[in-house]
């Protein structure tokens, strides 16, 4: 959902201004709006809440034809939304795709794009239910994912409490390493990220209090979680993807791992389905949004669409 | 939803191929997928079905900065989706906005864009619940609208029966006339279309069997309704917007009036809330998709994103 890609200025401020203009009606069906991974909608009489997320993928901004195959682009277009659903503890239900084709797009490229998108949709049990079709100078795809979660149980960014332990899944910086030209596992991590859908549902059962996906870099995303929960955080360095630098692990985007908070009384296993779960710190009272790494302030250096375009 | 902007070739064929690849699971919650104005989703236990539509608006394809103010663009970006909800007889609930800003976008333009979008959202009772934010060479906005309709009652394109009367709301060709540079009411029709949301709900109560919105021109859209309902149609010329040509009324896009079918036993008033409702013909058995105007075949000349880009 509307993501706060800037920590302090520009995009953050802008979206905050939009959020202030858009008041959700009390007692309405839309119970979470702008500012979390997904919007949450409670249909009248339904047993479940519905989660909605929308993600734009633009040629030469989010992918390049020189590095991404058509299948990679289709996969990634959907992976980003599935990762938002995972971050709320949801189960994917359906997908809408708006596609603006570029002059260079031929039928073969489009077929492979759909192959990639539909392969991931099938894997996660989501059905492509509709969309829109247009054209533009550069390819643009907007993917909406709807997921479902037990009524009132969605994992929000705002749910963490002082004293909760902070965890991340996996190892960070792999996508940044792949983006920098590294091959092998790092390249795969960059081109075909694996949204942590099953893990998200597990975190719900485990009693996590807050979660979000790491799309714009730990330093920026953790600051957002702290701001939404009105807390500060003390962390140590996160687990680093093999071959990545400490800076890539702290600030690199598109890892699509989960960042989550768990009350101290809950026992978190060391791994879930082969993905390591590592405590990186603790949430505490303090100036909302403050993040200390080994006791020193951590600058939010992740990606911002206003600042970095 | 994925709209069939080409009648016979290209886009139609392409989307038909996608539709064949995407089988909706029987007994699943997604009950209408690709091929109608909206996808229809039935949440477990809910009293209402949910409608979803997504519409892309791209600079220099769907609007030009030289003719559209920022408010016009914001209004129009939402009007298209609301019109799809209207065509199914739904009530708008919430909106998601994915926005890729162009280098020329400044804060003032964006504020006015939101002014236009939020003014229409308020008017129709929809709340902006989230979205995504990025950048691109040209501005692109993808708007998702969710609406609700009584369970099982959504007006589909496929519901018409032989013998049903065909109607249109309003007068056609106004938007094409405005696009061609005409001022006054035609220009307003082009820049600030009025989705027929209240009329759509009225048609549901009236017992209409099928409906769709006129976004790509009567000749093309009527053919699509006939194809989905597996029927042919005999029509006379529709009511023409003051100053427009017969060709603009038959083939011009973006009128956002409603085309609908009503069984002969139902009485349709001459107008609803000041908008004329005019019988233009009848649906009959015959080769699916055939449309005769005054007894002669009517070529589907509306807009096609594959053919016309």
User: What's the CATH class label of the largest domain in chain A?
Assistant: Alpha Beta
Helix proportion of residues of chain A, in percent?
A: 25-40%
> Which chains have the largest interface?
A-B, 68 and 68 residues
Strand content of chain A: 25-35%
Indicate the structural class of chain A: alpha+beta
The parts of chain A where pLDDT drops under 50 for at least 5 residues are: 1-9
Oligomer: homodimer
Characterize the overall form of chain A: globular
Order of helices and strands of chain A: HEEEHEHEEEHHHEHEHEEEEE
Please tell me the overall pLDDT of chain A: 89
Number of helices of chain A: 8
- Cα separation of the termini of chain A: 20 Å
Identify the CATH homologous superfamily of the largest domain in chain A. PurM-like, N-terminal domain
Counting structural domains of chain A, the number is 2
Query: In CATH terms, what is the fold-level topology of the largest domain in chain A?
Result: 60s Ribosomal Protein L30, Chain: A
Q: How many β strands of chain A by DSSP?
A: 14
* Biggest sheet details of chain A: 8 strands, mixed
* CATH architectural arrangement of the largest domain in chain A: 2-Layer Sandwich
The Rg value of chain A, from CA coordinates, equals 19 Å
